[in-house]
Fold:
Amino acid sequence: MEKFNKLTAVAAPMPLVNIDTDMIIPKQFLKTIQRAGLGKNLFAELRYDRDGNENPDFVLNQPAYRNAQILIAGDNFGCGSSREHAPWALLDFGIRCVISTSFADIFHNNCFRNGILPIVVSPENLAKLMDDAARGSNATISVDLEAQEIRGPDGGVIHFDIDPFNKQCLLEGLDEIGLTLRKANKVTEYEDTRKLTQPWL
Structure:
């Protein structure tokens, strides 16, 4: 998993509330277990018309936001069914951070396990960030995970809270497998001892 420390990038405003996981990555694209390639289907029903043509009104199709790495979203982002494909699709598109007033728990946890930083802010601060993002590609937003700060294009700073364990995992780029591998020596030691003391297993 890629480490997350500091990110300065274009932020795309998406003020819709209750964006669910089926909206993030529609069910017909869940047939794969490959993480790569899902980005082209991110928000597919909003990004494309029935003929597969881009919807020019959708924010991520607009020139200023095609390379956005931060998403400023409405309340209750990632609700609906549990599907890890949702953060996979966001990450494959290039989104490394989602900022909202609230997230569905499972989606929130899946983000941390896949290298995406979900940040919860107050409604007042979300409105400020939404306004900043609406300025387009000339107004970048900086996210500093170590300092737990979001810095707007005008220099305003918003502090955010985060679970210390999740923070450390992102800073070090560790998912569950990475955390387990940190104890590889102890696992090997245990297995070698077990072979000697319980060779019948």
Summary: The first strand starts at residue 6 and ends at 14. Residues 26 and 44 are 7 Å apart (CA to CA). The chain has a mean pLDDT of 92.
